[in-house]
Amino acid sequence: MNSVEFAVVATEGWFNGERHRAEPATFRIKNGKVDSITSGNYGTVLAAQGIRVHQGAFLMPGLVDAHVHLFLDGGPTDGPTRSAHMKKSVEELTEAARISARQSLSWGVTLVRDAGDKHGINHVVRSEAVDATLGMSRVRSGGSGIKRAKRYGAFMAKDVDDNDSIRRSVTDLSLINDEIKIILTGIIDFDAGAVTDEPQFTLAEAELIVATAKACGRKTFSHCSGEKGLSIASRAGVGSIEHGFFMNRETLSIMRDKQVAWTPTFCPVHFQWDKPEAVGWSDTTIGHLRRILDSHAEHLRLAHEMGVTLLLGTDAGSMGVEHGKAMMAEIRRYVEAGLPLTSALQAATASNRHHFDLPALLAVGAPFEAALYAGDPFMSLDHLVKPQQVWLGSPA
Ligand SMILES: [Zn+2]
Fold first, then answer.
1. Is it the case that residue 394 has pLDDT exceeding 80?
2. Looking at residue 65, what is its pLDDT?
3. What is the DSSP letter of 161?
4. Of 7, 65, 316, 332, which residue is most buried, by most CB within 10 angstroms?
5. Where are the alpha helices (DSSP H) in 198-337?
6. Is the pLDDT of residue 1 over 80?
7. How far is the CA of 303 from the centre of ligand 1 (A)?
């Protein structure tokens, strides 16, 4: 796992972020960038000349997880362990975040967007991860988000009050955050099978947040589920809607027209459906979870058909959602929903990078941020496992 001065990678097939090529290719890397891509696998020939060649079955851009919480550990699924984690010192939580970033990279995730922590641990790991020798995925940091006092989101956001405090907070956060996270709604009440609380901000307030962030050169992303919140987030023109459970066609068409992207994060809800014993859900609630997931899949398919930009993200750090590994599960959810694998992988690579204003494709001149696999996922999704090797490219 390194940023390389010179390397040769020979592969039987590859994906550039948008298109699958079921044909061999040889990549030359210089100073962390793709210097040339030659059709054909010249690995054996070059190795015979004494050149070290990385041989694999499939090469693709490093995965990008658009929604994680590095300081949370998705591994433990029992309540007491998760509660004890939240009470750890900032030093301990920072170490947990470093472990998350290393774990992500080992699964081929070269960049994560951290969706918020109140301590700003995501900023610390962002600066440390620039050093490729530390073996961490790079971090786009949402710092601390903003929320309404006494409402959901205290672990990841600071309170704002009137319009003046909204302007002040967003302006201050824009100095250090890569994006401004808006906690617009609470979470799903699974027993009720609905989002039961009112949105934390009005449309006018959400528009003020978006406009202030924009004036400061920052995009916004909004934690949002439920019809009322989705209507506000889409009309306010946030950069992306996170989770977006209880989506509907009208919101999707506004999103398409206003270029609002969607990060559906199936993983945390799918885990609760798959392992209901972790929380002790009743049969009725398990039924709600299945219905919510099916409707989410249907709207993902609709969003894809309508041309809404999809950003693949997992909400890693949530219960049962493990950093890095969860990307494989989220990709499977897209495919199960009926999207072509090409579209799922595009959402996990080029679309995320494009949304974050980074070079989107694995192409000549682009940073060599890539992962090499032993098998081709277009032959079988079972090949979506840990890659043989990961390269971080040159820092942005
Ligand atoms: Zn989250």
1. no
2. 98
3. -
4. 316
5. 203-215, 227-236, 249-258, 267-274, 283-306, 325-336
6. no
7. 21
CB-based contacts of 269-277 (< 8 A; 24+ apart in sequence):
269/188, 269/245, 269/293, 269/296, 270/329, 270/333, 271/77, 271/318, 271/319, 271/320, 271/321, 272/190, 272/319, 272/320, 274/320, 275/77, 275/320
Helix locations, the chain, DSSP H: 43-48, 79-86, 90-106, 121-129, 163-176, 203-215, 227-236, 249-258, 267-274, 283-306, 325-336, 341-348, 350-355
Determine the distance separating the centroid of ligand 1 and the alpha carbon of 386, expressed in angstroms. Answer: 24
* Span from the CA of 157 to the centroid of ligand 1 (angstroms): 11
Strands 145-148 and 63-68 turn out to be unpaired
Indicate whether 338 and 367 sit together in one domain: no
Asked whether residue 250 is domain-assigned, the answer is: yes
- d(CA 264, ligand 1 centre) in Å: 11
Q: Which domain holds residue 239?
A: 63-348
Distance between Cα 212 and ligand 1 center (Å): 23
Could you report the per-residue pLDDT of 314-333, keeping only the tens digit for each?
A: 999 999 999 999 999 999 99
Residue 50 CA to ligand 1 centre (angstroms): 48
Q: Give the model confidence (pLDDT) of 129-143 as tens digits.
A: 999 999 999 999 999
Q: Ligand 1 centroid vs 78 CA: distance in angstroms? A: 19
CB 300 within 8 Å of CB 264:
yes
Residue 353 lies in a domain: no
CB 122 within 8 A of CB 128: no
Ligand 1 centroid, distance to 231 Cα (angstroms): 20
Q: What is the DSSP letter of 133?
A: G
Q: State the average pLDDT over residues 295-302.
A: 98
What does the block give as tokens for 335?
């495919």
DSSP 67: E
Q: Answer whether 34's CB lies under 8 Å from 368's CB.
A: yes
Amino acid type, 205: E
Same domain, yes or no, for 241 and 289? Answer: yes
Tell me the CA–centroid distance for residue 315 and ligand 1, in Å: 5
User: Do residues 71 and 38 both lie within one domain?
Assistant: no
- Same domain assignment for residues 103 and 17: no
Which residues hold their Cβ within 5 A of ligand 1, which is an ion?
115, 315
